Structure formats: structure tokens, C-alpha cells
UniProtKB/TrEMBL annotation:
Positions of the Response regulatory domain: 10-131
Pfam families referenced in this protein's UniProt entry, alphabetically: AAA_lid_14, Response_reg, Sigma54_activat
GO molecular function: ATP binding; DNA binding
Residues recorded with modification 4-aspartylphosphate: 66
A GO BP annotation: phosphorelay signal transduction system
UniProt protein name: Regulatory protein AtoC
Stored SUPFAM superfamilies: CheY-like, Homeodomain-like, P-loop containing nucleoside triphosphate hydrolases
Annotated Sigma-54 factor interaction domain residues: 156-385
Keyword presence, ATP-binding: yes
Entry keyword annotation includes Signal: no
Annotated SMART domains: AAA, REC
Keywords: Activator, ATP-binding, DNA-binding, Nucleotide-binding, Phosphoprotein, Transcription, Transcription regulation
Length: 474
């Protein structure tokens, strides 16, 4: 898909304050990344009435309007624009004291809002996202196909308002050939969401290739990602496809994109923009048909400001964004998730456990879940494993939620029936799982802080997480 347009992208700015107009001009001129041939034109009107006149006379791709204007207000203008053409994205601008009105406007169909006083980076980021999204949807409208009947979300449990929003976003992004960024704390289900996007997209019949960006150090990593040709370096005895090409005609899931080393970020950006990949040691650029979904639990904008993440890659990724709220902010999903995992583990362990008692559910709902859905899954798994009755009751749940306070004697007793080697393996596994979970809990799921307190490099900590907190077949 080429996003390069021959006609300029035209932004209508409705703003009566000359200083703010100047600020916009500077942000657009100096901060906004754009394709080589792309031109951005800014048309300014001081009043809503003037803005409407311009809209009637010429094509406008994006409107940015102050909420407070002399004469017709920004909100009325939003309404009038939507009456004319509901596809034009409108960004509302307000002072902090009017931010409620701006949020209200978003509920009524505004695309986004910006709060004064502006920060150049934030301003450019929001304008850029609106530009790219309006292009993506314009292209999609050009080749509109009948909407397929909505598939049910088989594996994605939770139907509260937050998850419904997430599911609606999944359906939106799956229909357009754009890179998606999923942002959420560890264990919120980002990989599961990425799979759901893949399954609902045109690439569903192709592979779903996971690329764990925490495992790349500079150097050899480039060939792992992009492949190499025979003789490219010592040990390259034959041509080898990279992880990205292995996702051809399917989806490449870039997990923990925030951890990708800077040199690879530059190369990945080229791949995302050119849709071509060049193997190490090769001069040939190979065309690539791949959907990219990236995920992070880090604040990428903050990383950009610290010089740890490339601004151009951030802008490129920060277009189709899905925020997955932490489990503590969608507690309404806890009962259905808990029962889902109960079903899974009773089958796996062959134990006929009928239900989780209401008092036990109350405990589960009250707990803050710093490890999110993954931690809930692990608690239910252990509850089923240890259960001696046909229901899970409150005391079992309370014990498990505070497992880190258990004496080490009990864990040994639990495994005494096993031969030495097996018992050691199981206890070590349990230690790793509890240790990592407790460290994550203590840092509200922040992997960087948890790893630092554990005295482990972040990639190594992450590797232990993958091994002991994640499971095969997830
Ligand atoms: N909504 C959900 N319904 C069912 N299972 C879920 C849901 N969300 C997460 N899970 C399960 O929780 C576990 C963790 O999910 P996943 O690995 O997708 O999280 P993540 O956000 O990618 O984590 P990390 O940031 O640590 O890589 C998996 O077992 C996944 O199947």
C-alpha cells in the first residue's frame, strides 16, 4: 500500500489567536514527519463561519478547531462539519479549563483533542496520527467491499465496556492494511489481541510470526530479523530467511517493540515504509506482503524524549493504536475470565471442579492484579491443581493470592511425593514463577523496574517471564 499522495494533504485550522497559529505552522513545518513527495498545506480561518466557507469551496483532509471562537463555537462547527461530511477528522483544541468540553466533543465524534499550551511534539504526534488514519480510511473507502458478518471472538474473554471497545478496535484495524500498535501492561493479553487481529484480517490464512524484540542484541540480530545470504559472514553457510519474511502473507507480531536496539529500529522503519526487505549480504530488495502488529508495555513517547526510541519509528507506529486497560480497570471481566480458566484447567488436570464460589469470586474481584490476566490464569491453574473438593472456595483463593507469604516448608511438602530430580525441577519452576510474579507485583507490572530490582538485565528477566509465566499453546 502506498501512502504517498500526489495532492497536498490540506489541514484547515480554525483559530483566532495569532500566536497559536504561528505555533501550529512551526509544528507542521519542523516536527511533522512526512513521506518524500508529500506536501502539507495549512489553511487558516479565524472564525467558524469562515472555516465552513472554505470547507464548501475546496477539499479539506483534516480540521483542527479551537473550542472557543468568536461567533459560532467549535462544537457547533464540529456538528456542521459532520452534517457535511462525516469522514473529515476533526481535532478540537482547548485550554485545560475547557478540557471536559473537548472530551465531550470526542464522544460526539471528534477525532481527538489537544490541550493548550501546546507542546510541539504532542501537537505533531496528534496531527500525524490524524493524517495517516484519514488516508488509510480514504483508501479503504475507495476499495470498499461488503462487510463480512462479524466473527465471534472465540478466545478473547470479557465483555465489559472496556473490552467491547477493544474488540471494536480490533475489527476496525483488521479491515485496513495498516500497522497496529497495542499498548498495555504485561499480561493484559496483547499477544492474544494480535492473534485476534490476524484471524480477522485478509492475512488469516497465512502464518502468525512472533518476533520477540527483547532477544536482539546488536550485530547478529540483523540477520535473524532480515535473513542473510550465503557467505554474508563467517558461519553463513547457506541462504536463510529472516523472521520477518517467515511471516510473508501473514502477520508479524513485534512483541516488546520498545526493546528493539536503535540500529534495528532504523532498519525496521525502512521495512515498514518500503514494504521491502534486504537480507544481510544481499543487494536485492525483496517485496514483502506482511501485516505488522507491534506491542509494548512501555511509554514509547517518553522513550523518544529520552533518545531511546526513534521518533520517526514512533510516529509510524502510533497511528492505529489499541490501548488494553489493565485488569484492575475492568474488574467486570474477572468472573468470566476466572470461569474460562477454570474450564481450561479442570479439563487439563482431569478434575471435576464445578464452580468458583461467590465469596472466592469476591476475593478475586478485590485483588488489584498487577500481573493482569496472566496472573489470574496462574492463580486459577494452581487453585485447580491443589483443589481437594469440587468447588474453589474463598480460603483457597486467599492463600493463593498471598502465596508469596507461604513458608517454604509447604512447597516442599507439596512435592515430597515426587522423585528428587522431578521435585527439584517443579520447585525451581515454582520459585521462578513466584519470584518473577512478586517482583512484577511490587512494581505494578513495570518490567524495567522489576528487572532492575531483581538485579537482572531486562532481556534476561523477560526471558524468565516468557519461560515461566507464559505457556506453550497460549
Ligand atoms: N481477554 C482474555 N481472554 C482470555 N485469555 C486472556 C485474555 N487476556 C489475556 N489472556 C491470557 O493471559 C495470558 C497472557 O496474555 P498475553 O501473553 O497475550 O499477554 P501480553 O500482554 O502479551 O503479555 P506480555 O506483555 O508479558 O508479553 C495468556 O495466557 C492469554 O491467553
Amino acid at each position: 500500500m502506498s501512502l504517498v499522495k500526489s495532492k497536498p494533504f490540506t489541514i484547515l485550522l480554525v483559530e483566532d489567536n495569532a500566536g497559536d497559529v504561528e505555533m501550529f505552522l512551526r509544528a507542521v513545518e519542523h516536527e511533522l514527519p512526512r513521506h518524500d513527495a508529500e506536501q502539507v498545506e495549512l489553511v487558516v480561518a479565524a472564525r467558524a463561519e469562515g472555516g465552513l466557507k472554505i470547507l464548501a469551496e475546496r477539499p479539506i483532509d483534516l480540521v483542527i478547531t479551537d473550542i472557543r471562537l468568536p461567533g459560532m463555537s467549535g462544537l457547533e462547527l464540529l456538528q456542521r462539519i459532520h452534517d457535511m461530511n462525516r469522514h473529515i477528522p476533526v481535532i478540537m483544541v482547548s485550554w485545560v479549563d475547557a478540557v471536559d468540553t473537548a472530551i465531550e466533543a470526542v464522544h460526539h465524534g471528534a477525532f481527538d483533542y489537544i490541550v493548550k499550551p501546546f507542546e510541539k511534539f504532542d501537537l505533531a504526534m496528534r496531527i500525524h496520527r490524524a493524517m495517516r488514519i484519514s488516508e488509510i480510511f480514504a483508501e479503504q473507502r475507495g476499495s470498499e467491499v461488503a462487510d463480512p458478518a462479524t466473527l465471534p471472538f472465540r478466545n478473547l474473554i470479557g465483555n465489559g465496556p472496556a473490552m467491547q471497545k477493544v474488540k471494536a478496535m480490533i475489527d476496525t484495524v483488521a479491515k485496513v492494511p495498516a500497522t497496529t500498535l497495542i499498548i498495555g501492561e504485561t499480561g493484559t493479553g496483547k499477544e492474544l489481541l494480535a492473534k485476534a487481529i490476524h484471524e480477522r484480517s485478509d492475512e488469516a490464512d497465512g502464518p502468525f510470526q512472533v518476533v520477540d524484540c527483547t532477544t536482539f542484541t546488536e550485530g547478529i540480530a540483523e540477520s535473524e530479523l532480515f535473513g542473510h545470504v550465503r557467505g554474508a559472514f563467517t558461519g553463513a553457510v547457506s541462504d536463510k530467511q529472516g523472521l520477518i519474511e517467515l511471516g510473508s502473507r501473514g502477520t508479524v507480531f513485534l512483541d516488546e517493540i520498545g526493546d528493539l536496539p536503535l540500529n534495528l529500529q532504523a532498519k525496521l522503519l525502512r521495512v515498514l515504509e518500503e514494504r521491502e526487505v534486504r537480507a544481510v549480504g544481499s543487494t536485492e530488495q525483496r517485496k514483502l506482503a506482511v501485516r505488522f502488529v507491534a506491542a509494548t508495555n512501555q511509554d514509547l513517547a517518553a522513550k523518544v524524549k529520552r533518545g531511546e526510541f526513534r521518533k520517526d519509528l514512533f510516529f509510524r507506529l502510533n497511528v492505529m493504536v489499541i490501548h488494553v486497560p489493565p485488569l484492575r480497570e475492568r474488574k467486570e471481566d474477572i468472573p468470566s475470565l476466572a470461569r474460562h480458566f477454570l474450564g481450561r484447567y479442570t479439563k487439563e488436570f482431569g478434575k471435576p471442579i464445578a464452580d468458583i464460589l461467590p465469596a472466592a469470586l469476591t476475593e478475586l474481584i478485590a485483588y488489584p492484579w498487577p500481573g493482569n490476566v496472566r496472573e489470574l490464569r496462574n492463580v486459577i491453574e494452581r487453585a485447580v491443581m491443589l483443589a481437594k473438593q469440587d468447588t474453589i472456595d474463598r480460603s483457597q483463593v486467599v492463600n493463593l493470592l498471598h502465596a508469596d507469604r507461604h513458608s517454604s516448608g509447604s512447597i516442599i511438602e507439596e512435592h515430597l511425593h515426587l522423585p528428587y530430580a522431578k521435585a527439584k525441577e517443579k520447585i525451581l519452576e515454582e520459585f521462578n514463577r513466584q519470584y518473577i510474579q512478586a517482583k512484577l507485583n511490587a512494581h505494578k507490572g513495570n518490567v524495567t523496574h522489576a528487572a532492575s530490582e531483581a538485579g537482572l538485565p531486562r532481556p534476561y528477566f523477560h526471558e524468565i517471564m516468557r519461560r515461566y509465566l507464559k505457556k506453550e499453546g497460549d
